[in-house]
Design goal:
- Its main location: periplasm.
- Keywords: Signal.
- Belongs to the bacterial solute-binding protein SsuA/TauA family.
- It comes from Neobacillus ginsengisoli.
- The protein is built from 16 helices and 10 strands.
- Strands 2-1-3-10-4 form a 5-stranded mixed beta sheet, sandwiched between helices. It has a 5-stranded mixed beta sheet with strand order 7-6-8-5-9, with helices on both faces.
- Strand 6, helix 6 and strand 7 form a beta-alpha-beta unit.
- Helix 2 crosses helix 11 and helix 11 packs across helix 16.
- It starts with a helix and ends with a helix.
Length: about 350
């Protein structure tokens, strides 16, 4: 009887242990198969300038945070903001100036900047002819193919020109009526002596002999919240955990980019530029890293915000001064960094 009791007790212990292990395995499997939260992200253009965003996708940082981020390219600030406001996107990556335009129109559900991605202008001045010793006054009297009026590239471009003593509307034949997506094609077809282009287009043109990079608007303009992740206030109210997880993934990517080589970053983002030569991707990444274009954290600070409004005011497109705290939320980014 005693032997049977010992056997029963041992059997019972084994059964309990096996049940516990099975329960642990079930919980582990459930955590692995937990449904990801879908986030629709609209980016204003496809550019190596946004390398940390692609790193977050490629390295699985979003998935690590329980997010299924679905990226679409909407080609232009107006289209990107329309997608966000109409409910076609949950989060937008676009210039902060667009949030000011929306706020100035008296939006009931303002668009909030919650995570900064880039902190300088991302465009370069490209000349049709090779210039060994470029000076800004060489632009006078030429045809300049600029960006869409009211957008960050155009505003920063004109701000830089004015700082070099050039009145873009008097000293140049300024063309601004070409759609953002068609500017590069227009220049390649023979329009303009100079053009303001994003990468990798600028470097591709240089490699193909269609143009030559002579200056960087990013190094000339100082720090600005050039492209930030933003969403409607209502989305933050209803999905605060999702926004925080999104920001955490971006911060991981920013830190990864800051601590890895241009070649490693180029390999990570290459899938998003399948038609671009790897060496060009690496060159572009190095160019942006060297001029400090990639933000190393997602905080949009007040000095950058004020610089943005100064640039907008100089361009004559600032509808009104907007207080930093009105449409900038740094609490989420600060919480992420502290953790």
């Amino acid at each position: 009887m005693k032997k049977w009791s010992k056997f029963s007790f041992s059997f019972l212990l084994i059964a309990i242990l096996m049940f516990s292990l099975a329960a642990c395995n079930t919980n582990t499997n459930n955590s692995k198969t937990k449904k990801l939260v879908k986030v629709r992200l609209a980016e204003v253009t496809r550019s190596i300038f946004y390398a940390p965003e692609y790193v977050a996708l490629e390295k699985g940082f979003f998935k690590d945070e329980g997010l299924d981020v679905q990226l679409t390219t909407t080609a232009g600030g107006d289209k990107t903001m329309t997608a966000l406001l109409s409910g076609g996107a949950d989060i937008a990556l676009v210039g902060s100036e667009t949030s000011i335009y929306v706020y100035a129109q008296g939006a009931n559900d303002p668009v909030i900047n919650f995570a900064q991605l880039t902190q300088t202008d991302g465009t370069f001045l490209v000349s049709r002819k090779k210039i060994d010793h470029f000076t800004w006054d060489q632009l006078k009297g030429t045809t300049f193919l600029g960006q869409r009026k009211g957008g960050m590239p155009q505003m920063v471009g004109e701000f830089v020109l004015k700082n070099h003593g050039i009145d873009p509307h008097k000293d140049l034949n300024l063309i601004q009526n070409i759609d953002f997506a068609n500017i590069a094609n227009a220049f390649a077809s023979g329009t303009g002596d100079f053009v303001q282009l994003f990468e990798p287009t600028a470097s591709i043109f240089e490699k193909e002999g269609k143009g030559y990079i002579v200056a960087s608007f990013g190094t000339e303009s100082g720090h600005v919240p050039y492209t930030t992740f933003m969403t409607k206030q209502s989305y933050i109210n209803n999905h605060k955990g999702t926004v925080e997880s999104f920001t955490r993934a971006i911060y991981k990517a920013q830190q990864w980019v800051a601590t890895h080589s241009s070649e490693e970053i180029a390999k990570a983002v290459q899938p998003y530029f399948p038609d671009t030569d790897f060496e060009i991707i690496k060159t572009v990444v190095e160019r942006y890293k060297s001029q400090g274009s990639f933000s190393t954290d997602p905080i949009l600070d007040k000095e950058e915000w004020n610089n943005l409004q100064t640039i907008m005011k100089e361009s004559g497109v600032l509808p009104k001064e907007v207080d930093y705290k009105a449409i900038v939320n740094t609490a989420i980014a600060e919480k992420v960094i502290k953790k």
